[in-house]
Each structure stands twice: as C-alpha cells, then as structure tokens.
Specification:
Elements (H helix, E strand, L loop, with lengths): L8 H26 L4 H37 L1 H12 L13 H6 L10
C-alpha cells in the first residue's frame, strides 16, 4: 500500500520555493542593514560628505580673503605701509613706538574687579 503524503507534491514544491524566497529576503535584508553597502554606511558617508562640504566652504572663504590681501598688497601702497607698520613694527621719522607685552596686559585685572583687603 502506498503511503499518502500530507501535502500534494505541487504544494510541497511551492512551500519549498517560499521558504527559499524567505531565506533570500532575510539574507538581502541583513546585507542592506549591516553589509558593506548598507544603509548605516550610507548615513556615515552622508555625514562625512556634510563635514567635508563645510570644510570646503571654510577653505574657499579663506582662499578668497587671501586673494583679496594679495591683490591689496600688489596694488595699494597704503595697505602695504599699514601691514609693514603692524607686523614689522616700522615707524616713520619722528615717531615713537610703544610696544606692550600682551601677556602682561591680559594678566592685569580690569578696573572695578580688583579685590581690596
């Protein structure tokens, strides 16, 4: 006597196919969430891109400021004199230059904040 199967052979094939598809979906989902090209990696790259874009904007602003300064140094003699006097402490004839120690000025207490014994 032939043994009867609880499922028809066609239904068993469909069930096996669905289980394989379910395993495939689980594998693809795990790769999507935690794999090398995952959503987590994408968010990290998006954040890094934002940081690099901000850094690029700051560098572009600095480059523009330096370009303006170069142009002024090449074309404006008054600006050249101002820079020389500020950075190199040059003075004109009959001028007196007073240099103050910035550390000592910063260490002095402001008026009104001194404590009296």
């Amino acid at each position: 006597m032939a043994r009867k199967l609880p499922f028809a052979p066609a239904a068993l094939g469909k069930m096996l196919f669905l289980v394989l598809l379910l395993l495939l979906n689980a594998a693809l989902f795990s790769r999507l969430m935690w794999g090398s090209g995952s959503i987590h990696s994408w968010y990290a790259l998006k954040e890094k891109h934002s940081e690099v874009s901000q850094e690029l904007c700051a560098l572009n602003e600095k480059r523009a400021a330096l370009s303006r300064e170069i142009r002024l140094l090449k074309t404006d003699p008054d600006y050249v004199e101002k820079v020389i006097r500020q950075r190199l402490n040059y003075v004109r004839e009959n001028e007196i230059l007073y240099l103050f120690d910035k550390k000592r000025l910063d260490a002095r207490p402001e008026k009104g904040t001194e404590s009296t014994p």
